[in-house]
Amino acid sequence: MIRSNIIKPGVDPSGRLGHQFFNILPAIILAEITNSHFNASFLGVCTHWNNIFSFQRLKNFSEIDKKYNTVSLQKFDPFDIKKLKTLLDNFIFLPPQKIYELQLNQDPGKLLALVPSFHDEIKKCLKIRIPNSQDVVVHMRRGDVTLDYANSLYLDDKFYLKIITTLINQGEKVTVFSQGERIRFNFLDKLIETGKVKLELTESLIIDNRDIDTFIRFLGAKTFIGSYSCFSILAMILRDQSKRSIFLEDERSLSSHHFIEMRRMLRLIGVSFLKYDFA
User: Fold this and answer.
1) d(CA 194, CA 79)
2) Half-sphere exposure (CA, 13 Å, Cβ side) for 248?
């Protein structure tokens, strides 16, 4: 029996689609584990979610009961399994008929491993028809990531150049999606001149319809290649598992708590990994 309380995520209103979804996942998974209700209410840029997702389709979804008081849960460390177990054990003692709201940017961490089939459940949220494409789609995270800013999420241009060159030599057509000024992508010019590579750029840092259209292309591609981006990872989770998804990585994915859990989860759903060696 579902308990009469509601777990609500703390969604960062300045985040984009992937970032926000990984704010939402802890609430979805906690609701499943603790047999509670789940609700996601969004503000501002989040209104574009309604174009592709309907969280009402989740089995534990509940509308907010205005009679319920909201209680803020303290941010928890999702990578400390002992503390996480204590949190889950204590859930049964929380007063019922409350809205328990998670803190902003709560990471799902090891919660991802506690409900291995969660990706099947969240696929139910998709309310769009996914077009099938024979192209290879590459998401190259730039925009908010450069060698000078957030460089822990930056993969070298040489890595992408090598991968894309290999693909077109195999007869594939490749579309690269990224963000930023065109001059930053001059290293792709010779490949684009072959007619086998397309580059699609956006300069927007706000979720908009183009952002959503790009995400749909990720879902429908024959092969999707992404990396250190929640936008990429979310697409890999929601893609049909019969389609190929490849995560480009380096030594960081083997040392960061965050990416160790992501990596384990992606392997469970059949994602392949290709490592870049800086040596």
Assistant:
1) 46
2) 25
**Over 90-122, what HEC string results?**
HHHHCCCCEEEEEEECCCCCCHHHHCCCHHHHH
Cβ atoms of 17 and 215 within 8 Å: the answer is yes
Q: Whose structure tokens read 């990706």?
A: 119
> Measured between alpha carbons, how far is 204 from 137 in angstroms, rounded to an integer?
20
Which one-letter amino acid corresponds to residue 85? K
Q: Which amino acid is at 192?
A: I
The pTM of the full predicted model, rounded to 2 decimals, is: 0.86
Ranking 70-74, 140-144, 240-244, 262-266 by mean pLDDT, the lowest is: 140-144
Q: How far apart are CA 236 and CA 226, in angstroms?
A: 8
Q: In what order do the strands lie in the sheet with 197-202?
A: 197-202, 174-179, 136-139, 223-226, 244-249, 272-275
**Cα–Cα distance between 32 and 180 in angstroms, integer?**
39
Comparing 61-75, 173-187, 198-212, which segment has the lowest mean pLDDT? 198-212
pLDDT average, residue stretch 55-84: 86
Q: What distance in Å separates the CA atoms of residue 230 and residue 153, rounded to the nearest whole number?
A: 11
Q: Which residues pair with 17 in a beta bridge?
A: none
Number of Cβ within a 10 Å radius of residue 22: 25
